[in-house]
């Protein structure tokens, strides 16, 4: 009895330490974004001064807007391409070069971002010399982020496809559906939660990426993480705390809304499955 009590409190202690290690720095950053003083770690009173000055900081606002545009584009393209990759790997188990295709699709997950960024930079510079396009900026950063995000999206969608019962698609084909009708009417509704999770994951990865953005950005196309990183090297700026707090707020709202949506969708799916089994039993 005494041993179980100690074990329980020991586990809770480790859990608390883990949460503190993960989230205490974020809490400190949010708190000091409301600090009146310019000096970090010296609290001189509550103030919204840095948020009001942030509105006048065109460099951070421009970087924030650019990061949001790239993140939205990256999430959409990554989910689209990642779904194709996952569908091919899950539905077509045997075709020439499958092992090579699978390895190349997942290579960005284990490849250092420095190597990916450098290789992409060399390739895009060569392409630009030949065709005069693309200029380094939004397009090149989007291409780099999509390459990385596609690999993550493929893993998320493929895991859902593996859990999905193939009998649903087979039943639809027996009833006369064409392959594209099976995909849009049966497969897509069953993997929409994984698509939403992959979209959020790739959106967040793109929003805070520094390494690829540093290689692929051009003059006048600095994303928000690059602006923050360049300013942090010259000393901590309270306006950076403010923009980081806004970013945390945006990402948190997105995660909460998606979690509620995914939970409701899962409950609805379970109810539909239960109703279908009940109908068959009747």
Task: Explain what this protein looks like in three dimensions.
There is one protein chain. The chain is mainly α and 282 residues long. It has 11 helices and no strands. The longest helix has 44 residues, at 238-281. It is globular and about 70 Å long.
Summed up:
It is built from 11 helices and no strands.
Strand and helix layout:
Blueprint: H1 2-32, H2 49-56, H3 58-91, H4 98-110, H5 113-131, H6 138-163, H7 166-174, H8 179-207, H9 211-216, H10 224-232, H11 238-281
Radius of gyration: 24 Å
Query: Judging from the principal axes of the Cα atoms, what is the shape?
Result: globular
Number of strands: 0
> What fraction of residues sit in β-strands?
under 5%
Which labels suit this protein?
0% strand, mainly alpha, 282 residues, single chain
């Amino acid at each position: 009895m005494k041993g179980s009590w100690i074990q329980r409190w020991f586990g809770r202690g480790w859990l608390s330490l883990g949460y503190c290690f993960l989230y205490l720095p974020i809490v400190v950053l949010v708190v000091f974004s409301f600090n009146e003083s310019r000096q970090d770690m010296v609290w001189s009173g509550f103030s919204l001064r840095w948020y009001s000055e942030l509105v006048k900081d065109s460099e951070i606002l421009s970087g924030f807007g650019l990061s949001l545009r790239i993140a939205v584009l990256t999430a959409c393209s990554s989910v689209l391409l990642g779904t194709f990759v996952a569908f091919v790997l899950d539905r077509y188990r045997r075709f020439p070069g499958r092992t090579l295709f699978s390895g190349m699709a997942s290579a960005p997950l284990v490849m250092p971002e420095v190597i990916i960024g450098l290789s992409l930079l060399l390739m895009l510079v060569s392409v630009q010399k030949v065709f005069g396009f693309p200029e380094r900026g939004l397009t090149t950063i989007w291409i780099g982020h999509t390459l990385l995000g596609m690999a993550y999206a493929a893993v998320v969608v493929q895991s859902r496809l593996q859990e999905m019962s193939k009998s649903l698609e087979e039943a639809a084909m027996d009833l006369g559906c064409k392959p594209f009708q099976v995909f849009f009417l049966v497969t897509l509704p069953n993997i929409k939660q994984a698509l939403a999770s992959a979209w959020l994951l790739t959106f967040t990865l793109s929003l805070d990426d520094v390494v690829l953005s540093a290689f692929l950005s051009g003059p006048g196309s600095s994303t928000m993480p690059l602006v923050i990183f360049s300013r942090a090297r010259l000393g901590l700026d309270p306006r950076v705390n403010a923009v980081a707090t806004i970013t945390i707020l945006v990402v948190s709202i997105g995660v909460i809304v998606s979690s509620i949506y995914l939970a409701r969708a899962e409950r609805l799916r379970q109810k539909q499955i239960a109703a279908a089994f009940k109908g068959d039993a009747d």
